[in-house]
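Renewal narrative, Specific Aim 1. Our central claim is that a sequence can be written position by position from structural information alone. The example that follows is taken directly from our test logs and has not been curated for this report. It begins with the structure tokens describing the chain, in the order in which they were read.
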């Protein structure tokens, strides 16, 4: 079988698609040392952040002499600022170009986080002495918008004063922990690694944790996974200053849906979850371990809903 899509064969297209897919998960994120505003221009233009950073809701009719391309080339990307190994934060970087014009005093750039509808805005004002600079380009770079992993953002760039229909807009997805660079450098992606041993007599699971964020408490719990992982009251906290990185958790039954979860006690932290019994696995083979007498707290069918 041989498909031909234009000049390229099916296999060549497939390779291109796989390559593009792979790149989106592996591409590294630009590092910044300082965040803020940078303007690049050739003439004597002053560019500074305006103090009033309030989003302008109303727009004015643009004057006839205003060129429609007064704002150009908006590019949105994610950048990272680090203060030590793994201590990095993510910011939205917005690059854009404004054409100087007698009507335009500056630009306003806003980043809206779609999940929370929260908007961060910054405005930039130009001041220039000479009218001769009209028509000159100013390249603007603003990267002080802090964001979290995996957020969807909507970025707008408007003129000051805000003229209708001249704004630029773009959607952008902030990389998540599936991006290697983010996974290795953003603390909340570091979920930890769980290992376990079972003591059938004591009906307890000893969970050893490793690869966790230093300096923070760490939670471990047992849960029953159906749609969500339902808490079953077995929970322990490993204190940050505790050198013993293991806990004992008691269980009532080893069920196929029994899972072990771990996460750092920091906001938005990622959870690691292992469900070692889902194929009846581990040392406890065979269905006799799952289906026990009716008198037990929970039967396999009732708890796991399978
Ligand atoms: C934004 O502009 C800066 C300075 O010119 C440049 O270093 C950076 O690569 C640009 N970023 C994007 C996404 O184009």
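The sequence written for that structure reads:
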């Amino acid at each position: 079988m041989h498909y031909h899509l234009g000049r390229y064969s099916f296999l060549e297209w497939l390779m291109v698609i796989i390559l593009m897919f792979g790149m989106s998960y592996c591409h590294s994120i630009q590092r910044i040392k300082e965040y803020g505003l940078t303007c690049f221009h050739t003439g004597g233009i002053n560019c500074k952040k305006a103090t009033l950073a309030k989003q302008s809701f109303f727009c004015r009719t643009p004057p006839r002499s205003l060129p429609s391309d007064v704002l150009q080339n908006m590019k949105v990307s994610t950048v990272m600022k680090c203060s030590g190994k793994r201590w990095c934060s993510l910011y939205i970087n917005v690059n854009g170009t404004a054409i100087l014009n007698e009507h335009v005093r500056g630009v306003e750039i806003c980043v809206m986080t779609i999940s929370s509808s929260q908007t961060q805005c910054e405005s930039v004002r130009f001041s220039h002495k000479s009218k001769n600079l009209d028509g000159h380009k100013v390249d603007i770079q603003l990267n002080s918008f802090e964001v979290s992993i995996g957020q969807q953002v909507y970025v707008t760039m408007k003129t000051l004063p805000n003229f209708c229909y001249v704004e630029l807009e773009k959607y952008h997805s902030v990389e998540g922990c599936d991006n290697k660079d983010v996974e290795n450098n953003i603390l909340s992606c570091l979920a930890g690694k769980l290992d376990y041993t079972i003591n059938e007599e004591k009906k307890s699971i000893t969970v050893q944790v490793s690869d966790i964020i230093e300096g923070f408490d760490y939670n471990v719990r047992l849960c029953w996974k159906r749609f969500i992982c339902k808490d079953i009251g077995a929970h322990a906290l490993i204190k940050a200053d505790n050198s013993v990185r293991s806990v004992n958790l008691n269980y009532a039954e080893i069920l196929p849906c029994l899972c072990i979860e771990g996460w750092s006690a920091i906001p938005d932290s990622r959870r690691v979850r292992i469900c070692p019994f889902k194929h009846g696995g581990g040392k406890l083979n065979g269905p006799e371990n799952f289906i026990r007498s009716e008198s037990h707290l929970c039967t396999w069918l009732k708890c796991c809903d399978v």
